């Protein structure tokens, strides 16, 4: 934090956060509006935690209880070809050209998909300007989450492919700010597709629960992290020592605000902030929250819209870094300089919680 504050000062930025935002030409209002919007919707978040407590039959809920599945994992198997077919069907709102190119790549050699001794875990997409995009993952046909992972990484791959096709080399790369939009957009379409095809209450509840957890982890939790970064840097910039006691105090106050009074906050949880690797790359995590918020808004716009909405989104995918991130997203149909996209995502969160409660804990 002190290093960030010093670097901002010598480069004549008003603050460390504004120095970090400067790289993407993002105004401070975007960062602060994100925090304010999530804060406004915290009562719904608290209601979700109380629902989770009741469904698990607990007297009080702890942080580790948030990782217990509310619905047994779906017993669905998807071979590689079946997973590709499901994803292609889910992404049909993006048009035949997008889907045909993606399907050909996934059925070809875009993905190193088989588990192997010594192979790295996790998943990511990579590539160069004049090569195919490549995906590394360990696909298992009995894990439904791997279908979502493949859709996510395929979103990155198609973003890379379309940007490289449309832009000269110097404008073909895209920033982290927009990267997560293309990937989580595909997850949103897959969620819509699977919910529409759900044949039982259990299946629909499982998909609902997964989507709730995705929004909670990507928008709400990352915004709490973003607020922690904001406050901790402000503390240093005000000349106050950032001692361990001060760090614990800041983080505990945020835990109490974001999780609610009914949530049992163990003392050791105050130290969680020390193990978050992204905090060593300051003001990074807010991009996860803005990215998913934009993806929710754009996926709704494309799914419910027509040719103009689709053309605008595909134009965004082809944009690379030819414009500033906010301008690319604005051209696609979402303006993150207003509170509406984050508000829409959190309203969707409330709708999902309402439906899950109706399915699993009817009055």
Walk me through the structure.
With 363 residues, this protein is an all-alpha fold. The protein folds into two domains: 2-70 and 202-360, Oligoendopeptidase f, C-terminal domain (Neurolysin, domain 3, Orthogonal Bundle); 80-173, no CATH class. Helices cover 63% and strands 2% of the residues. It has 15 helices and three strands. It has helices at 2-10, 16-22, 28-40, 42-55, 80-90, 96-107, 144-166, 169-172, 176-197, 201-237, 244-259, 286-304, 307-317, 325-332, 340-360, and strands at residues 111-112, 124-126, 134-136. Strand 2 (124-126) and strand 3 (134-136) form a beta hairpin. Helix 3 (28-40) packs across helix 10 (201-237) and helix 13 packs antiparallel against helix 14. The mean pLDDT is 94.
Q: Order of helices and strands, N to C?
A: HHHHHHEEEHHHHHHHHH
Q: Which fold name fills CATH's third level, the topology of the largest domain?
A: Neurolysin, domain 3
Tell me the distance between the termini.
48 Å
Helix content: 55-70%
Query: In order across it, which strands form the biggest sheet?
Result: 1-3-2
**Quick one: CATH superfamily of the largest domain?**
Oligoendopeptidase f, C-terminal domain
CATH architectural arrangement of the largest domain: Orthogonal Bundle
Mean pLDDT: 94
Given helix and strand content, the structural type is mainly alpha
Strand content: under 5%
- Can you tell me the number of structural domains? 2
**Overall CATH class of the largest domain:** Mainly Alpha
Main sheet characteristics = 3 strands, mixed
Total beta strand runs: 3
Number of helices: 15
- Shape, principal axes of CA atoms: globular
Weakly predicted, low-confidence segments: none
């Amino acid at each position: 934090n002190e290093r960030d504050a010093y670097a901002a000062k010598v480069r004549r930025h008003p603050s460390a956060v504004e120095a970090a935002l400067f790289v993407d030409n993002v105004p401070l209002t975007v960062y602060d509006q994100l925090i304010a919007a999530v804060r406004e919707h915290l009562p719904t978040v608290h209601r979700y935690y109380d629902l989770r407590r009741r469904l698990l039959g607990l007297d009080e809920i702890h942080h580790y209880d948030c990782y217990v599945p509310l619905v047994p994992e779906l017993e669905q198997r998807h071979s590689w070809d079946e997973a590709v077919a499901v994803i292609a069907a889910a992404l049909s709102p993006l048009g035949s050209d997008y889907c045909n190119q993606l399907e050909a790549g996934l059925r070809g050699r875009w993905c190193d998909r088989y588990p192997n001794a010594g192979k790295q875990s996790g998943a990511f997409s990579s590539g160069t300007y004049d090569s195919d995009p490549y995906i590394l993952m360990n696909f298992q046909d009995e894990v439904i989450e791997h279908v979502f992972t493949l859709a996510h990484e395929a979103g990155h791959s198609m973003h890379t492919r379309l940007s490289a096709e449309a832009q000269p080399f110097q404008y073909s790369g895209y920033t982290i700010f927009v990267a997560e939009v293309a990937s989580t957009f595909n997850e949103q379409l897959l969620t819509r597709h699977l919910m529409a095809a759900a044949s039982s209450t259990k299946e629909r509840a499982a998909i609902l629960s997964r989507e709730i957890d995705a929004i909670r982890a990507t928008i709400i939790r990352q915004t709490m992290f973003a607020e922690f970064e904001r406050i901790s840097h402000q503390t240093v910039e005000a000349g106050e020592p950032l001692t361990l006691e001060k760090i614990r105090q800041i983080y505990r106050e945020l835990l109490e605000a974001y999780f609610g009074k009914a949530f049992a906050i163990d003392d050791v949880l105050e130290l969680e902030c020390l193990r978050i690797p992204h905090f060593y790359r300051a003001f990074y995590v807010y991009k996860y929250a803005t990215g998913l918020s934009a993806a929710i808004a754009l996926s709704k716009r494309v799914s419910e819209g027509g040719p103009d909405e689709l053309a605008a989104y595909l134009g965004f995918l082809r944009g690379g870094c030819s414009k500033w991130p906010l301008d690319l997203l604005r051209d696609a149909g979402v303006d993150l300089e207003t509170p509406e996209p984050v508000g829409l995502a959190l309203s969707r969160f409330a709708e999902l919680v309402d439906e899950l409660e109706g399915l699993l804990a009817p009055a």
